[in-house]
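User: I'm putting together notes for a lab meeting next week and I want to include a structural view of one of the chains we've been expressing. I don't have a solved structure, so I'd like a prediction I can at least talk through. The sequence is below, exactly as it appears in our construct file.
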Amino acid sequence: MFLTLRATLEEADRLQPETRDVPLSELMAALARGALMGARGNSGVILSQMVRGLARAADGRWELDAETLAAGLDEAARLAYQAVANPREGTMLTVAREAAAAVRELVASGERDLTTLVTAAAERARETVERTPEMLSVLAEAGVVDAGGQGIWVVLDAIARYLRGEPLEQAPALAPAHVQRDWLSATQEMHAAEPSLYGYCTQFLVGGQGLDAEAIRSLLEKLGDSVVAVGDERLVRVHVHTNDPGGAIRIGTDAGELLEVRIENIRQQAGQFFQLQESLQPPVAVVAVAPGDGLAQTLRSLGAVVVSGGPTMNPSARQLLEAIEAAPAQEVIVLPNDKNIVLTAEQAAGMSGKRVKVLHTVTVPQGIAALLAFGPSRDLEENARAMEEAAASVRTIEVTRSIRDVRIGDLQVREGDYIALVDGELKVKAESAEAALRGALDTLDGSEGLLTLYYGADVKEAQAQALAESLQQERPGLEVEVVYGGQPHYPYLASLE
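Assistant: Thanks for the context. Below is the predicted structure for the 497-residue chain, given as structure tokens.
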């Protein structure tokens, strides 16, 4: 998909838009031409059809508006489905369709802001990618999401970030909510059990007059799978997995003139990939529990296999055991990140055939600090010591609301009061979550250091940013970093270092 996008943009650069005004229709036509000419792989060819769909909607338009965007994404999804001989749900096709639906629904409700619309498309794409293992069993068995679908999300997310004026950081990898197996070994087993996945990846570009992409696709379906044939009467881009690449090429030469041919041995590529991935696997893996999607993403970005759970939704021993078995190493460190999960984690560790060590991290900030201290080249015991020391160095603040009346020492708390716990101990009650956090900082003499503020599912980003700015104004020696946590029940979690 990257190579396809690069070819797409190279074609647009030839228009020299920096020196003249270019109508949307001309720009999109160039993008579609570049995508078709430069499409690589199955996902790249499908992506080229999506660009073509956007170009069709832009025909005759000078600039992009909400209706054109909605129509373009709908057409992009339609052409993507049309390009594949046997479309399946749980792939990039589903992601494209759902992203289009998100925009269509907003436009129908009266929304016209392009930034809002693209952001909604990106968010729906992300949600759909995370659900792809639920739709496609082969993904669930391997414990991964659909790669092409993730590519669609990365593109939409980058566009949304650009429109919002945000930095285009490297997109984080998405992962399914429930990892069932070690994806590497599962994928190897799948390839060994399903020889139809092997063969030659055969791609070519045919030029001529009166070409019929559907007729070419129909002939190729008799030779293999992953068949895609797209284009128009003058150019057709072909992709097929087959054990008879010569036969596929003959179909192309019978239809027209071959302009480009690429044949790759899939079996050889798969073997090289597995060898490379195995050589890159660390000797020790980490499993961590997270109570929110933002916290889960943070933990994944640090290399952990993540299990959903936390207060009021503790994972079972079976769920933790599945994650331990799915972790790509024979030695595993488990970070429960909640005092009520420690014993369950130890039970799961005892049920595993792997060598497992459970660290007694009782808050997510402790778990994140521990992961930051993880060393891929260190053994289990060395990592455990370093991670325990890092976890112990962090002070944790948890802000929530009391679910009952309680008196602790001189502190009388009523049901519904905002409260702050410092390292697990109730220290402050207040009328707002922000006031509770300030009070907790006062108990820690939090006038300097680094405060990482993880805001919850019910807190707006702007609200969290405003709190961070005011804290820094009140405490000039305090640096505050705001991170989306997405945790329920806790408006704010914070770590002070």
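A couple of points you could mention at the meeting. The domain at 195-272 is CATH 3.30.70.980 (Alpha-Beta Plaits). The chain has four domains: 2-170, 195-272, 281-392, 396-496.

User: Perfect, that's what I needed.
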